[in-house]
Amino acid sequence: MPPISIHWTELLFFVFAAVTLIQLFYYLFFFIRVPLYRLKPRLKSQQHPVSVIICARDEDENLARNLPGVLVQEYSSTYEVVVVNDNSVDDSKYILQELKKTFKDRLMVVGLTQEAKLITGKKYPLSVGIKEANHEVLLLTDADCVPSSEHWVYKMQAAYDEQKEIVLGYGAYHKTKGLLNKLIRFETFHSAIQYLSYALAGLPYMGVGRNISYKRDLFFRAKGFSSINHIPGGDDDLFINKVATGKNTAIIIDKEAMTYSTPKNSFGTWMRQKTRHYSTSKFYKPIHKFLLGLYSATHFLFYPLLAATLIFFSWQWALIVFGIRLLTQGTIYYFAMKKLDEKDLWPWFLFFDLWMFFYYIIFAPTLFRKTRNEW
After folding, report:
1. Do the strands 212-215 and 137-142 form a parallel or antiparallel pair, or are they unpaired?
2. pLDDT reported for residue 119
3. Share of the chain above pLDDT 70, in %
4. CATH value of 50-273 in 2.60.120.560, 3.90.550.10, 3.20.20.210, 1.10.3720.10
C-alpha cells in the first residue's frame, strides 16, 4: 500500500479546521451557559444581613457621586456600608462625614493613616474592612462603581444557598460615545462570559472586585490574603482562584444586580489598568491557565489561518468553516450581550473579534513582565 501523501496546503486546512473546532468547543461547552442561565426559583425569599465593603483612596468625587446609590438600597433586612478611607489626602474625609450625618446607622467609616509594609495593592485596607464588618455576607465593590438598581444588595445575596460561599456578579461600564468605550466594554463582556461560564461549568477561576460577594468565614478560613500579599493586585481574581470550587460558587446575571463604573478615557490609561489585571493570571491554578491559554492561542491563530487557507487552499472551504464559527459565535454573543445589557455591542462583534488578534499582541508581554507595586 503506497504511503499517504498530504500536501502542505491540505495540512494548513486541517490545522485551521482543528483550531476552529477548539473554538467551537469553548462556545458550545462554556460560553453558551451564560445565555442559557436561569436563576432557580426559590420557595421563599431570603434576606441575609449584608456588609457592603468599599475601599477608597483619594476618591472624593467618586464617593460623592456613587456612594449614595449604595446607601439607599431597598432592603428590608439589615445591611451596612463599610468604607475604608485609605490614607486619602483629598476631601474624602469631609464627604464621608457629611454622608455619615444622613446615614449614621448605615455607614461605617474606617480611616487608615499609615501604609501597610510589604502588603501591596488594596489587600490591607480590604482586610481591615472585612475585620470591621458586622455581618457574614460580604458584598464588595469599588468607590467608582454605582449599583444598577436599588435592588442590588437583595439580588446579590439572594443567590446564596446552604452550599454557596461565593457569588460572582457582573461589573459593567457606563455607555458613552466613542470607539474606546466600545472596546473597553467588549473586553469586559469578553472576560465576563469566560469567568461566568466557567463558574457555571463548575470551574470558577476569578471574579471582579467591582461586584463580588463572599462569606466572611470563608475569608478567615483561607487566612485572608496572606498567601498573595506579596503579589501586586489579586485581591479579587487570585483570592477567588484560591478558594472557589464548583460547589461553593454561584453567579448572578440580572440587570438589577450589576454595577456600573466610568471607563478609562485614554488608551494608555486603559492599557496600564489591563496590564495590572493580567499580571496576576500567571498565578492561576494549572487547569485554569491551560484552558484560558488554549482559548487565547486558538483565538489568536484563527484569523491568520483563515487568511492563509483562503489564499493557499480553497476559499470555499475556508468560508464554510469561518461561517460555522461566525454563526455560532454571533448567536451566543447576541443572547449573552442581551442578558448582560450590552446588546448595542452586538452589531460590532465581528470587528471586536478581529480586534482581539491585536489585543493579544499588545497584552501578551504582560504575562512575562514583572509588575509594579501599586494600589
Report:
1. antiparallel
2. 77
3. 95
4. 3.90.550.10
